[in-house]
Amino acid sequence: MTASKNDREFVCSKSETDVEEPSAINDFPQLTTTTERKLMAKVDLHILPFLCVLYLMAFLDRVNISNAVLFGLEEDLHITSGTKYNTALTIFFVPYIIFEIPSNILLKRLKPHVWLSFCMGMFGFVMVMQGLVQNWGGLMATRFFLGLFETGMFPGCFYLMSCWYTRGEAQKRFSFFFASTTLAGAFGGVLAYGIGKMNGIRGYKGWRWLFILEGLLTIVIAVIWFWTLPDFPETVSWMNEEERAFIKAKLEKDTGKSAHGQSITWRNALAVFKDCESAPILFWGHIYLNILQTRSLLVGWHILGLLFRLMVMPTLPTPSSEATAIVLSRRNYIPSLPGLLLLDSPN
Length: 347
Hints:
Layout: H1 2-25, H2 36-63, H3 65-70, H4 73-77, H5 84-91, H6 93-98, H7 100-109, H8 112-130, H9 136-150, H10 153-162, H11 167-196, H12 206-228, H13 241-255, H14 266-271, H15 278-305, H16 317-331
């Protein structure tokens, strides 16, 4: 009888525990003033346009040298022979690769609106200086510092998005972000064609005006972004406490801790190279970026080698860039379908 009574007490206590577990699981912040769909649309409108414009200007300032070649840069700087032009293109990637990790560490310690807008303003200033260089040495120096200040744009934007979106939500946003680089090629050539018509104004060649005006535009946007670029869900003023708690809980459920709450150290940064799942991503990312950069930096040179008319040359990348942007925006829906995530899906 005693054993039977103890068994009944054990069964009762177990069933009570089983009843409490679901309530613990359902202890997830509920939205009462809005819906999740409306909240994420609100986040998109406050985050994506800023980051897309930021990286679009970085990419435009990086590759506009290919359009400058069409307006006489090589002849004016006396780099038509040898490998001087290719060396000027390559020197950009030396600081760009070396300082990516330190840049994200600084972005974490400072606020994104401070670090990203500072870098944006500085590479805009370097772009203006690039329009004033007189020789190959000056071009090399400006390309080096351009790479130094642009190094934080790509990883910084991705890090900031990870502070707002779960892995499943981020895929569409990453594709939309990537599309901004192709749009830079789409209207960058048309913009270069228009600016090139300023050839001779105040004694400056068209390629100089191309660097100067696009650099000044970048500086203006950087000043605006300093006051408007959002930081983290915990610090923005356009979300209430309920919405902040919901975003934070989603991120913690997805990865264990929100990205804003995680520290970035050299040990954490180097650990990615030990992760076998990261190796194929790094490999294919390397292949993709090589193709993208080669196409963007050398397209003007190759077109010039084919002796196309100057009126047509800068606008040729436009159709292919627009098509690429559309494909990038559409194809992300397939891997983001439930159960079809190519990487780890949210729990």
